From TrEMBL, chain B:
Annotated family: Belongs to the binding-protein-dependent transport system permease family.
Phylogenetic classification of the source organism: Bacteria, Pseudomonadati, Pseudomonadota, Alphaproteobacteria, Rhodobacterales
Domain called ABC transmembrane type-1: residue spans: 70-261
Residues annotated as transmembrane: 74-94, 106-127, 139-161, 182-204, 240-261
SUPFAM superfamilies: MetI-like
GO biological process terms, semicolon-separated: transmembrane transport
Protein name per the record: Carbohydrate ABC transporter permease
Domain of life: Bacteria
Compartments it resides in: Cell membrane
Keyword Amino-acid biosynthesis: no
UniProt main location, coarse: membrane
UniProtKB/TrEMBL annotation, chain C:
Stretches assigned to coiled coil: none
Keywords: Cell membrane, Membrane, Transmembrane, Transmembrane helix, Transport
Main location: membrane
Location(s) in or outside the cell: Cell membrane
Domain ABC transmembrane type-1 residue range list: 85-297
GO annotation terms (biological process): transmembrane transport
GO CC aspect terms: plasma membrane
Membrane topology category: Multi-pass membrane protein
InterPro entries per the UniProt record, alphabetical: MetI-like, MetI-like_sf, UgpAE/MalFG_permease
TM segment ranges: 24-46, 91-111, 118-142, 170-194, 228-248, 276-297
The organism's place on the tree of life at top rank: Bacteria
Protein name according to UniProt: Sugar ABC transporter permease
From TrEMBL, chains D, E:
GO cellular component term of the entry, any: maltose transport complex
Transmembrane segments annotated in the record for this chain: none
Domain ABC transporter: 4-234
Key words, A-Z: ATP-binding, Nucleotide-binding, Transport
Protein's recorded name: ATP-binding cassette domain-containing protein
SUPFAM superfamilies found in the cross-reference section: MOP-like, P-loop containing nucleoside triphosphate hydrolases
Family per record: Belongs to the ABC transporter superfamily.
CDD domains, per database record: ABC_MalK_N (cd03301)
Source organism: Paracoccus gahaiensis
Length: 398, 276, 307, 336, 336
């Protein structure tokens, strides 16, 4: 009798049903194996995981955002390499960029399940009202102009959940990508070209502040949580909302009516390019998550089997069909019908580089610092130079 | 009596009413908010609701999770109270009644606990709880909660026990009653007021504790109500009315409990705290 | 003719009696449970905190990266820590300068036992028994710029919506309001209890000697309740050092980390960012601060009131 | 002139009437003692005079002025409390000085008056001590000192000695008597100790349930109690109150005879009695005896009488010292 | 046999020696009263006998057995405390029963003994009450009841009546005397009230600063005090202790004369005196007078003497009632 325990950040009911169903199917095929899921709320999950991993209550498989966190976990010896345990050729079904997030020194310690992208959700009713043509927004300058135009028309240009800070860090991260090109983060991590004090990061701060000087956010955005902001956007409180594709369903639920904006008033706008980047190549990069699962060192081979089962093409395709998320496995996004998901999937596929959220990618401490400086930049209480220096300091003292 | 008296009294009452409204207004807004639609809250946060919508309260009351949260809180609070009273009273009895080598030092050692919050040691505390395999159990909250309550409890108990007439012990002693028996037969029954006081404080503290459960309870099955409330708040973040209804329903038991136990709270402040 | 008592004999007899009357058993049975609990869950974790504080440790594995006093150095050089410490001091100040006088004034108004006074007492004490998180939620509703009470009032007065909690200048003032709101009743109760124990005849004696109401307060009542004031100040200071739960739902330390207290700082920068060593060092600093306050306090105030 | 006159004073607390309707004149310079059982309203009456309590009806005049609605501090009175009511945080000097400071008396004069009071009360050596460092008698003196410096027309005392032990009480009693002689002020003194009442008073006021039973000089009250209540209340050991039949008078409800007014013989006498308990106190002997048909009789004999419990005695009440009371408990003026 | 013998008992608390070296025999069946000023070690001595306190040296024998290191409950003693020390959460019956239960006395016998004790003390109607529902005298009786049921050989009382008011005290005093007669047990009784000492004791033990000054029957102690201290301590009002020169004897350090042993005349006498304060108590009159070269003299006269403060009197001490003391304060056996 083998038991596989899986720890997951709390999800909504549909997703939970989806996971349970997979577990049941797996149990049916494998006599003597039981799979049990546990769910923990988001913030608590992050702060509790390290200690949990040291305990006897360590899960076999747990939810992960990839990146530096995985590196740290590997260094502490909590994870086990799974290449050898996976079915032959399984790794090939998953795009290289996705696997990279779970790889440390060429060893695979987990699998990605889905990718997400951060985009400007747009309320077209409002942009139309202000006479803004979102199709025409190509560059950051265009975007700033559109913001000004919206403001002039008396429309709140952007809603943002400033209290949680991470919604603001998207701006800084994206701008850094655009300014510094795909490798800007890895170079900084390697300590090359001035690390996080590289000109690209300073430029990112500067560009961000060009935006915030327009006062584009709803009043009191800095005391607004992500959830509130997303509900407000769905209530039509602002024209743009820089947020992941995952927000599509939740923002509806959070709206006052429970309905949210009708699909025909909703559009997706990719984060615009900057005109004169510090380093080239950043214009087609995407920012988002490569969320998946890591396997702990105590896991039996059955755990990896289950992981592979969960990630098989059939289940991936099913998730796409239910619009739970955008599956990562090659060619499994084909059954999706939701236009927004399809669009995002195309983006990611076309992306020159998919950067994982910096607050996850760089580990908890540096990530939180980036969130902090993003909020401070937004409020104009910090200079771009200081912001970059603080990130570098946090990185040094990781 | 005289006119000056009357005027002064009126002034006094007026001032008291102003402070009272400062105190009550937020709570009132909370209670009433639970009856309003979100739209109405936006335009009329303070006033009476136009229509008394009871479905928000209803939906929370009919949610089994809500009752589970309350149940968990209740079990944990009662567990903490009982454990604190028994272990704390026993130790305080020894400190008050028996002089032995090192007793003063041990007492000062225990009093150190008065001076720092959970937070200072929350992480090692978590590891301790985890190593004992208690995570996600009621004990994970009860034991540390008790340990952190012990300092104050022992201080108050000792003060009270020391005030019990010494002759009572001597009379019983001459009757042939030893120390341990005296503790059970006399000290505990005679200390009902201070037991009630300390019990009340520990209960309220445990009932309201947030940080400790936050760290040691992962499973929603064992969530206490403050965790449940924050969780709920996260889920229904723009629906202030639901949140307010939830808050109202969870603070009600505390208020009811307070009304029942206020005598002991006051007594504790007079007897223990002020003299201690 | 006196034969001196044989000290050895009587010492042995004493021990025999101590054993037979259960004194030793009592110590051995009744004391350990509390001591073990306390040591295990309070003192040991505290000691471990001190240990961890010398490591750069993210909570994974065992602490190995010994960094000496680096954590302390970083904390003391961190501007947010300065803000947090400053805020904590502000809370201490507001408790001592606003909250306690308010509480004392109210206590003087309602310490006599009448039904109306009992009602006011109840009302004023109510916030104290509310959970901090509940209080935080309630007030975050009050301060909510879109929905809240302040929003209603602002709209009613025709102002723009005000977002108190997102204004770095005002957010902490708001937090201090909530703290005063929540805790003044507690201090008031301490004073009431003390005032009720002031012998009535001393007040009457002063009245006969021609003291006005304010003079009675100043020369009779306040000197009398000085021990209670000392206790309440002690609670106010130690309590201020521990403020945490209220802040989380209100501002979570924001905006721009302007509203951290030492404990939220510890929680945010230590626990949620997995700088366990760093956080432990904050804990140690807090603990040392609290103990210092307590010791000084005892030296200065408690002694004087005893005399 | 500091005569105190109470005119038709009444006082109720809520529904409870404590003083129904009371008239009393306290002559200028007199030492008037209010006695009565616990709860009879002595303190209430004193507090009405002091102004700490307002009467429900009637008026209070001090030195001819109506002060019924006057503040306590404006009445020219001072008060000494049973518990002394010293301010624990002030030194003896500050305690005594406090009232003067409030009255804004010039510093030099304050100092002179405090020194004078301390001298009178032999407190010079203690002026810098806190009350907690004083003995009971010294505290009592400080309380009195606090009264003296204010130079009131009327001193009020509410059981000032009842917290002291017997020896100190005797000593302070003598000191109080001397103080009254030297100050020559009006003093009103509440006690329920009848030795104090008898020894200190010029005028005794015996109260019962809010009413005055008798007012008079101590020996008048002792020798001619106007009611059976006063007869039983004043004197120790208590006066024997026996049924009228004990002396063969059916028209008399009660006959009173003090223990010292009964003769004892081993052979002849009016009543045959059996000694129950004999207490030899040294200077005198008290015999608790039982007389058939009459009841328990207490007898007090001078010196040390060698009597034993169980002995048979013959008792003879002195006929000139009988007190007769009618059904209403009032004195009958014919001891025929 | 329940004689109590204390042999070379000493006791120190830390550095403070309370009892230096004390020997005392309490005869079987006696009522022995320990008196002495506050702090002289009476309670300490009683607590050493009870076993609540261990002596620093010496031995305690009860009924012939050495119990110095015995547990209190094994000594066959019982103790009644000043504050009664009733168990507030138990009923009267349970209070009385508690010691028996601990001693594992069979239920039937326990019941019988409790009933008997209640009968003796007239407590039958109160057995189900809690102590808080009883009056002071009833509480005191329960405390005594608790002692009785244990059928101790020795009863110890530590100021059992001092919390009662004067009237109750007198009553309980009489009851205690009767109880001693009926139980016939050894009783050791601590008090600082000398009326109690005089009236209750078979044997009075007068203590001073941890030493025994005199042991004897009450009237012996009253009539022939062995030291000046005892002379001044026993008797109320206090004996006058004057310098020997007052009676023209240079070889006598102090001469004592009781207030009732001084004759008063308005014309002739040994000493010319001025009355300072006159206290008329009804049954007798106490005069505090001043005699030049001799000092303050207290005189007690029977009945109500019409004397006034300030009057000149002539005092004559009765020569057969003089007590002479030497430099060491010891009685001189020659009242020549
Ligand atoms: N403030 C008050 N409120 C209600 N009843 C009162 C108050 N003060 C006194 N009384 C009642 O009035 C009655 C007389 O009280 P008072 O204190 O004058 O008696 P007293 O003669 O001084 O008695 P004692 O000798 O015990 O001091 C008592 O029955 C008492 O209960
Ligand atoms: N436990 C103790 N520790 C230190 N000193 C003590 C203790 N018990 C008594 N004493 C001291 O011993 C002396 C005698 O005390 P004890 O109680 O025997 O006096 P007492 O004669 O009973 O006086 P009182 O009449 O006031 O009861 C006192 O000076 C007292 O302070
Ligand atoms: Mg009174
Ligand atoms: Mg004593």
């Amino acid at each position: 009798q083998t038991e596989v325990t899986v720890l997951r950040v709390a999800v909504n009911d549909e997703q939970q049903a989806y996971l349970e169903q997979i577990a049941e199917a797996f149990e049916a095929q494998n006599e003597g194996v039981t799979v049990s899921f546990e769910y923990v709320a988001n913030e608590a999950y992050k702060s509790r995981l390290p200690t949990l991993l040291q305990s006897d209550a360590r899960p076999d498989v747990f939810y992960s955002w990839g990146g530096q966190t995985v590196v740290e976990q590997v260094e502490a010896g909590f994870l086990q390499p799974i290449d050898a345990l996976l079915p032959e050729g399984f790794a090939d079904t998953i795009p290289e960029a996705g696997l990279q997030a779970y790889m440390v020194e060429d060893q695979l310690y987990g699998l990605p399940q889905y990718a997400t992208e951060v985009v400007f959700w747009t309320n077209t009713a409002l942009t139309d009202q202000a006479g803004v043509d979102i199709e025409a927004i190509e560059s950051w300058d265009d975007f700033l102009a559109a913001v000004q135009q919206l403001k002039d028309a008396g429309v709140t240009p952007i809603v943002a959940g400033g209290q949680d800070k991470w919604p603001l860090h998207f701006y800084w991260s994206y701008l850094a990508l655009r300014e510094g090109g795909p490798s800007v983060i890895t170079d900084a991590m390697a300590g090359e070209t001035g690390g996080f004090e590289n000109e690209a990061f300073i430029a990112a701060g500067r560009e961000f502040q060009r935006l915030t000087e327009l006062e584009p956010f709803q009043p009191g955005y800095i005391a607004t949580t992500y959830e509130t902001a997303s509900g407000m956007f769905a209530d039509g409180a602002g024209a743009f909302h820089l947020m992941g594709d995952w927000d599509y369903l939740p923002m509806r639920e959070r709206s006052t009516s429970g309905e949210g904006l009708p699909d025909d008033q909703l559009a997706i706008l990719s984060f615009p390019a900057v005109t004169d980047p510090v380093a080239p190549g950043g214009e087609a990069a995407t920012l988002g998550g490569i969320n998946g699962w890591a396997v702990s060192n105590s896991a039996e081979p059955e755990a990896v089997e289950f992981l592979a089962f969960m990630m098989n093409a059939e289940n991936q395709r099913e998730a796409g069909r239910q619009e739970l998320f955008i599956p990562i496995a090659e060619g499994t996004a084909d059954e999706m019908e939701n236009p927004f998901y399809i669009e995002v999937a195309e983006h990611i596929a076309a992306s020159s580089f998919h950067q994982i959220f910096l607050d996850q990618f760089l580990g908890a401490s540096v990530g939180a610092t980036i969130n902090d400086i993003s909020a401070d930049l937004a409020q104009g209480v910090m200079t771009p130079e200081d912001a970059a220096a603080q990130v570098q300091e946090a990185w040094d003292f990781r | 009596m005289t006119r000056g008296h009357l005027a002064r009294n009126l002034l006094r009452l007026a001032f008291l009413c102003i402070v009272a409204s400062f105190v009550l207004a937020p709570m009132l807004a909370t209670v009433l908010g639970g009856f309003k639609t979100n739209a109405e809250i936006r335009t009329n946060a303070l006033g009476l609701p136009a229509i008394w919508n009871t479905q928000f309260y209803g939906s929370i009351l009919s949610d089994p999770a809500f009752w589970r949260y309350l149940g968990n809180s209740l079990v944990i609070s009662i567990g903490s109270v009982v454990l604190t009273l028994i272990t704390g009273a026993a130790a305080a009895y020894v400190f008050a009644q028996i002089r032995f080598f090192g007793s003063r030092m041990l007492f000062s050692y225990v009093l150190l606990g008065l001076m720092f919050p959970f937070a200072t040691a929350i992480l090692p505390l978590f590891i301790k709880v985890r190593d004992m395999g208690l995570l996600d159990t009621w004990w994970a909250v009860i034991l540390p909660q008790t340990a952190f309550s012990l300092s104050l409890a022992i201080l108050l108990f000792r003060t009270f026990f020391a005030q019990l007439p010494r002759e009572l012990f001597e009379a019983a002693y001459i009757d042939g009653c030893g120390y341990v028996r005296f503790f059970w037969r006399f000290t505990l029954p005679l200390s009902a007021p201070i037991l009630a006081t300390v019990g009340t404080f520990v209960f309220v503290q445990s009932w309201n504790n947030f940080l400790l459960p936050l760290v040691v309870l992962n499973s929603r099955e064992v969530f206490t109500w403050p965790l449940g409330m924050m969780q709920f708040r996260g889920e229904y973040v723009t629906q202030w009315n639901l949140t307010l209804a939830f808050v109202t329903l969870t603070i009600l038991p505390a208020i009811v409990f307070f009304l029942a136990a206020q005598k002991y709270i006051v007594a504790g402040l007079t007897g223990g705290a002020v003299k201690g | 003719m006196t034969h001196a008592a044989d000290p050895r004999l009587s010492a042995r007899a004493r021990l025999r009696r101590a054993l037979s009357n259960g004194r030793v058993t009592a110590v051995l049975i009744l004391l350990p449970p509390a001591l073990i609990l306390f040591t295990l869950f309070v003192m040991l974790p505290l000691g471990e905190s001190a240990w961890f504080s010398f490591f750069n440790w993210n909570g994974y594995g065992a602490p190995e990266d010994f960094v000496g006093l680096d954590n302390y150095e970083r904390i003391l050089g961190h501007s947010v820590f300065h803000t947090a410490a400053g805020n904590t001091l502000k809370i201490v100040a507001i408790s001592l300068v606003v909250q306690m006088p308010l509480a004392l004034f109210l206590a003087l108004l309602i310490y006599r036992k009448t039904p109306t006074n009992a009602l006011f007492r109840l009302v004023f004490f109510l916030p104290y028994i509310l959970a901090e998180v509940a209080a935080g939620l309630i007030w975050s509703f009050v301060f909510d710029g879109n929905y809240g009470v302040t929003a209603s009032i602002a709209q009613g007065l025709g102002f723009e919506n005000v977002f108190i909690l997102s204004d770095p200048d005002w957010a902490f003032a708001a937090i201090m309001t909530v703290i005063v709101w929540k805790y003044f009743g507690f201090h008031m109760m301490i004073y009431i209890a003390a005032l009720q124990s002031v012998p009535e005849d001393q007040i009457e004696a002063a009245r006969i000697e021609g003291a006005r109401r304010t003079q009675v307060v100043r020369y009779v009542q306040i000197p009398h309740i000085r021990p209670a004031i000392a206790v309440s100040a002690f609670f106010a200071i130690i309590g201020a050092l521990q403020v945490f739960d209220v802040i989380i739902p209100l501002t979570n330390g924001g905006p721009s980390n302007q509203t951290h207290t030492i404990v939220t700082y510890l929680y945010t920068f230590g626990l949620t960012r997995l700088n366990i060593g760093f956080g432990s060092a904050v804990g140690v600093i807090l603990f040392v601060g609290a103990v210092t306050v307590a010791i000084f306090y005892q030296r200065i105030f408690m002694k004087r009131t005893e005399a | 002139m500091a005569e105190v006159t109470l005119h038709n004073i009444s006082k109720s607390f809520g529904g409870l009437t404590v003083l129904p309707d009371l008239n009393l004149t306290v002559p200028d310079g007199s030492f008037t003692v209010l006695v009565g059982p616990s709860g009879c309203g002595k303190s209430t009456l004193l507090r009405i005079i002091s102004g700490l309590e307002m009467p429900s009806g009637g008026s209070v005049r001090i030195g001819g002025t109506d002060v019924t609605f006057e503040e306590p501090s404006k009445r020219g009175i001072s008060m000494v409390f049973q518990s002394y009511a010293l301010y624990p945080h002030m030194t003896v000097a500050q305690n005594i000085d406090f009232g003067l400071r409030l009255a804004k008396v010039p510093a030099a004069e304050r100092k002179a008056r405090v020194t004078e009071a301390a001298r009178i009360l032999a407190l010079e050596d203690y002026l810098d001590r806190k009350p907690s460092q004083l003995s009971g008698g010294q505290r009592q003196r400080v309380a009195i000192g606090r009264s003296i410096v204010r130079q009131p027309q009327v001193f009020l005392f509410d059981e000032p000695l009842s917290n002291l032990d017997a020896a100190l009480r005797t000593q302070m009693r003598v000191e109080l008597a001397q103080l009254h002689q030297s100050l020559d002020a009006t003093m009103i003194y509440v006690t329920h100790d009848q030795v104090e009442a008898m020894t200190l008073a010029d005028q005794i006021v015996v109260m019962k349930a809010g009413r005055i039973e008798q007012v008079g000089a101590p020996m008048d009250v002792y020798d001619r109690p106007q009611t059976a209540f006063v007869a039983g209340f004043i004197g120790s050991p208590r006066m024997n109150l026996l049924p009228g039949t004990a002396i063969g008078r059916a028209d008399v409800a009660q006959v009173g005879i003090r223990p010292e007014h009964i003769g004892v013989s081993s052979s002849v006498g009016t009543w045959a009695a059996r000694a129950q308990v004999v207490e030899t106190l040294g200077a005198d002997t008290v015999v608790y005896a039982k007389v058939d048909q009459v009841g328990d009789v207490t007898v007090r004999l001078p010196g040390n009488q060698r009597l034993k419990a169980g002995e048979t005695l013959f008792l003879t009440p002195e006929p000139q010292n009988l007190h007769l009371f009618d059904d209403a408990g009032l004195r009958m003026e014919d001891p025929s």
